[in-house]
Design brief:
single chain; mainly alpha; two-stranded antiparallel sheet; 2 strands; 71% helix
């Protein structure tokens, strides 16, 4: 699919997708005869992973490292050796722990924000009576 369709599906702007390509986070799987970028479902999944990392404040460097870890663990040619695979899984576990902690922080922030919104709603309800 072309970049416009990918942007619709992922909710990312064309500019962001091109920027991610420049950084090596995603590479279009092919180009059309006219030179247009062509993406596969796998490319879209990769972009969605990067998009989901964004609200968790992962840097572009961290995104690249995590995507690289996932790629390396999935590689079949050459497949990582047992020691390398364990090192990669350990890095993946570290990212999982960071992700869990950041999600918990966001949950706490959301609860505080919802509490504040409820307070404002209650004040408006009491003022309008």
């Amino acid at each position: 699919m072309q970049i416009g369709r990918v942007a619709e599906r992922t909710g990312l702007s064309l500019r962001t997708i091109r920027h991610y390509e420049e950084l090596g986070l995603v590479t279009p799987s092919a180009r059309s005869k006219g030179g247009f970028r062509l993406y596969t479902e796998s490319d879209v999944e990769r972009l969605m992973m990067a998009r989901r990392m964004k609200p968790l404040d992962f840097s572009l460097e961290e995104m690249g490292e995590l995507l690289g870890i996932i790629d390396a663990l999935a590689a079949r040619d050459p497949e990582p050796g047992p020691e390398e695979a364990e090192r990669l899984r350990e890095r993946l576990r570290a990212y999982q722990q960071i992700t869990d902690a950041r999600c918990e922080k966001l949950r706490a922030q959301l609860m505080a924000a919802e509490g504040f919104a409820a307070t404002l709603k209650n004040r408006l309800a009491h003022r309008s009576r």
